[in-house]
Design goal:
The protein has about 325 residues and is of the alpha+beta class. It contains nine helices and seven strands. The protein folds into two domains: about 140 residues, no CATH class; about 130 residues, no CATH class. The protein is globular, with a radius of gyration of 21 Å.
Length: about 325
């Protein structure tokens, strides 16, 4: 057995960003994964959340936002780059863990017992980071979504394609995470870099209000969604209001962190959290609307549209 961090799936405590009192317990698989990996490494990931300020609506979905890898290097010294899994994922995980490195890997959620909606039901791509592997006993400890878990036996065999012709399987997308230059900066070291990243992402913020553009697209898609049914709506909701709501809640955490260190943006933190709450309400109302029940959606969308303008304007006033 090879293990990098001395943690156990049964006793692992998730990051505060995945605490039960969060509005959105999960964001998307890549961001949630990095939240937990950084937390397990003893790092505060909140200073790395400036990217949430440039998240935009892309025409039919909100941006599937991610931690920019270069910013993880700037803040924490992490070196992350794509690698080719030419010898098979199982081998590379074992070898790189033995060298003190992580791998992020795209895998099939069908074999992940922590994914209740897809485990043994549906083949869906998701990302994990392995922390422990035992090839002899067929056990794998891995970070995924909002926690740290373990799988074994048939799930292990299925995940790595044991017993199948590997030449017929597509190589997964894999990133090598080198920890050689990992550092744990204090607040004084972080503030200058975080402020610069906030300014950079504000300069790349959406040129027009993304909630307004989402509303226009919703008007076009509403009848289609009703005809498609609730399974399609869940996909729509994940790609739209969930990404907006979870990104604004993370932005609220970033602004609260800045406010605690002297920047006068505590009111913006409250505004972003209100946007996260409104997005959750909008999701429930849209579900009712798509299922054929009467409900009023415009007032909550009005509030979201106005709230985004107010929050962005205050940040621009503060940071330029």
């Amino acid at each position: 057995m090879i293990s990098l961090l001395p943690i156990d799936a049964a006793s692992y405590q998730a990051s505060p960003l995945h605490a039960p009192d969060r509005v959105w317990l999960e964001t998307n698989c890549y961001v949630d994964l990095w939240i937990e990996v950084l937390y397990a490494l003893g790092l505060d990931c909140v200073p790395a959340l400036a990217f949430t300020l440039s998240v935009d609506f892309e025409g039919d979905q909100w941006q599937s936002f991610k931690f920019p890898l270069e910013e993880l290097r700037q803040l924490y010294g992490l070196d992350v780059a794509e690698m080719h899994s030419w010898r098979g994922l199982e081998h590379h995980i074992e070898e790189q863990l033995g060298m003190g490195r992580f791998l992020t890997a795209e895998v099939d959620a069908f074999y992940l017992p922590d994914t209740a909606v897809s485990y043994g039901i549906e083949h869906i791509k998701t990302s994990i980071v392995a922390n422990m592997i035992d090839r002899e006993q067929r056990r794998l400890g891995y970070f995924h979504n909002a926690g740290y878990f373990e799988l074994a036996g048939d799930d292990y065999a299925g995940l790595f394609g044991i017993g199948r012709d590997l030449t017929e399987m597509l190589d997964p997308y894999v990133e090598l995470v080198k920890l050689d230059r990992l550092r744990h900066p204090d607040d004084g070291e972080l503030m200058g870099t975080v402020t610069a990243l906030v300014q950079e992402h504000l300069a790349r913020r959406p040129e027009t209000n993304p909630v307004n553009r989402f509303r226009k697209r919703l008007d076009q898609d509403l009848e289609w969604l009703r005809a498609e049914g609730m399974d399609r709506f869940h996909q729509f909701a994940f790609a739209t209001v969930r990404q907006f709501g979870s990104s604004t809640e993370l932005a609220a955490s970033l602004c609260a962190w800045l406010a605690e260190r002297g920047d006068p943006v505590g009111d913006v933190a409250l505004q972003f959290r209100e946007l996260a709450l409104s997005a959750k309400t909008a999701q429930f109302k849209l579900a009712r609307l798509v299922s054929g029940r009467n409900t009023e959606v415009d007032p909550i969308l009005d509030s979201m549209e106005h709230g985004w303008d107010v929050a962005m304007q205050r940040l621009v006033e503060q940071y330029g």
